Every structure is written in C-alpha cells, then in structure tokens.
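Folded chain entry
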Amino acid sequence: MLQKLNKSSGPVTANYGKLKVESDRLEMHVIRSCDDWILVLLVIVVVIFLWMVTFMKMFPKRGT
C-alpha cells in the first residue's frame, strides 16, 4: 500500500507544478485583459465629454 502511495506521489507533484504555472499564466492574462477594458472605457468617456462640450458650443443656451 505504501509503495503505491509513493509511486503516485510523483505524478501528483508534477501535476501540481504544471497547475501552478498555468494558474500564474491565466492570472497575468486576466490582468492584461482588464487593463485593456479600462483603457477602452476611458477613451469612450473622453470622447463623449468632448462631444458634449462641442454640442454646447454649437447650440448655446438662449436667454429668456
């Protein structure tokens, strides 16, 4: 029984190492993807703000 446990611990250790490497790789991918979305949303906000300012200059408020 002990021999079987010792025999199976080798692949378990190797699989754990591979899982750790893949987990780190996935974490970096998620962080990079999140940064891209933040940049896209920031650009959209800036464009909408500039469009709003331009619209207000084109159609000034009328005095009543």
